[in-house]
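Postdoc handover notes: sequence design on the structure in folder B. Input tokens:
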């Protein structure tokens, strides 16, 4: 693979993600959302500048010729260790949530409200919760080993399937959707890494496409379920929920859509009496959920447009979550994250603009592009080093998630970073054991 082809995977995925983002933004009008194109144009221009500056170093700077691919003999051990630690972590997290009084029987959204109330009441996290978050996302490491190092289709799909199952379980227990977006973006990043390393890509078959669509459908269905759960929790229909929630995200409806009476069906596919709803009724209740999902993933443009017209404020947006975690150790003071639109997404270019204005957006974009360029060189030089692959994969994930939010402030991002260290150290420790005490799977 020569220099030009080595750059193509990242550029194709990165620009395709931004194109999908802008197309989704343009399609909001189909769901009845009123889009102020004049205000959005300012945010879209800044976002386009960000995308161009990130891609520029990768395009302009030379890269290296890819080495011939080699087989990573320890990938099975890493896959098994990562999945096993995730099972232990999710079980620990579930036990910790139950010990603090979280009730999952009423749905994820009710559990999320209970978690928020406990946090606002000053309740500290238990040891079970801490272990759960540290270990629960270790399946990211298993996915990295499978996608970038596997030589068989079966091995790769089995690992991804197990990881998606653990992802859904973790999202339910943690009552969080951000891990799903983080995992899908990480999968795309790993595909970029594998292409860039020059590893052989198996010919895509129909079953591969079908299986991939099923897994994406599971993730997308969980997000729809969360919005439907919120509508049920407030005892309104999905249409009424969309009418009420859209203004919070910075969008008005062209004409508020009529919804059935409150006593009618809050649940998709079932009536208030428990009877199965007609297909047409199910579709009518699902369309608002799809519209809310698109708005949820694109409302950062509306937030950015608001921020671009505001004077600078003292509160910060970028790195607030990792700095808050660090502040809990007592090493630094807690960051001031109480900005005007707290609770809404701003996108990575929007956060750079909010905290450092246009100069920060330009410098931050170029720095991210340079880091990606250097990272792609590293994975070509060390194609079997999973620490390098994981670091570059997470760096690419930051770029892929940039239209939505800063990946640094996702709930799971710091813990995914820790999971690579924990899994690799665990695998190293097992290799140092006497040969007779190792399980056969690690041979």
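Designed sequence:
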């Amino acid at each position: 693979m020569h220099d030009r082809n080595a750059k193509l995977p990242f550029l194709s995925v990165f620009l395709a993600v931004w194109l999908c983002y802008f197309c989704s933004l343009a399609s909001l009008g189909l769901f009845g959302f009123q889009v102020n194109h004049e205000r959005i144009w300012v945010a879209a221009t800044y976002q386009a500048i960000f995308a161009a500056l990130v891609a520029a170093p990768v395009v302009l700077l030379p890269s290296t010729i890819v080495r011939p691919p080699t087989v990573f003999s320890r990938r099975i051990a890493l896959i098994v260790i990562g999945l096993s630690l995730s099972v232990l972590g999710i079980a620990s997290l579930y036990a910790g949530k139950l010990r603090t009084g979280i009730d999952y029987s009423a749905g994820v959204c009710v559990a999320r409200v209970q978690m928020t109330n406990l946090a606002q009441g000053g309740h500290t996290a238990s040891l079970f919760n801490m272990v759960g978050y540290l270990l629960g996302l270790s399946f990211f490491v298993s996915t990295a080993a499978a996608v970038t190092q596997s030589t068989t289709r079966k091995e790769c799909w089995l690992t991804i399937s197990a990881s998606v199952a653990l992802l859904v379980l973790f999202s339910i227990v943690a009552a969080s959707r951000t891990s799903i977006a983080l995992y899908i973006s990480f999968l795309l990043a790993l595909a970029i890494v594998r292409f860039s390393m020059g590893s052989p890509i198996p010919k895509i078959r129909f079953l591969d496409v079908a299986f991939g669509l099923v897994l994406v459908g599971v993730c997308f269905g969980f997000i729809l379920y969360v919005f439907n759960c919120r509508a049920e929790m407030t005892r309104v229909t999905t249409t009424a929920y969309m009418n009420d929630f859209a203004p919070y995200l910075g969008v008005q409806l062209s004409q508020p859509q009529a919804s059935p009476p409150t006593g009618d069906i809050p649940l998709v596919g079932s009536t208030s009496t428990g009877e199965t709803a007609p297909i047409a009724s199910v579709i009518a209740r699902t369309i608002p959920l799809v519209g809310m999902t698109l708005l949820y993933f694109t409302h950062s443009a509306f937030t950015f447009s608001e921020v671009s017209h505001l004077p600078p404020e003292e509160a910060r947006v970028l790195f607030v979550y990792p700095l808050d975690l660090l502040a809990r150790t007592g090493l630094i003071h807690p960051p001031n994250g109480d900005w005007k639109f707290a609770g809404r997404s701003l996108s990575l270019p929007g956060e750079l603009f909010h905290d450092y204005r246009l100069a920060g957006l330009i410098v931050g974009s170029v720095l991210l592009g340079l880091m990606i360029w250097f990272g792609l060189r590293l994975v070509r030089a060390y194609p079997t080093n999973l620490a390098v692959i994981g670091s570059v994969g997470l760096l690419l994930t930051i770029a892929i998630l940039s239209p939505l939010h800063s990946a640094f402030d996702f709930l799971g991002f710091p813990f995914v970073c820790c999971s690579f260290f924990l899994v690799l150290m665990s695998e190293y420790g097992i290799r140092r054991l006497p040969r007779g005490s190792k399980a056969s799977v690690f041979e």
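Context for whoever picks this up: The first strand starts at residue 33 and ends at 34. Don't rerun without checking with the PI first.
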